[in-house]
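Re: the request from the purification team.
They wanted to know what the chain is likely to look like in 3D before they choose a buffer screen. I agreed to run a prediction and write the result into the notebook, where they can find it.
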Amino acid sequence: MVTREDLLRPKMNEVVKEVREMRMKISEKCGHDLYRLLAHYQEVGKRLRKTGKYKFVEPEPPAEEKSTLVESSEDKVAD
């Protein structure tokens, strides 16, 4: 976890600066278009998953799917 003190250190400031510069370059490459940016990061994620080198957490289903899952599991319990 990065603390406020970490962010004040010169070395950490350089890391943060570098990350922000890379994010800006990627955004520029996508024309600052949110949908193109999202597609870019999704593609990068797919490539990283295929390598098997990294672990990914699967996103939770949307709220409407959650409620359906809860209802169906409640039905099973009631039987």
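For the purification team: The first helix runs from residue 4 to 8.
Please add any questions underneath this entry.
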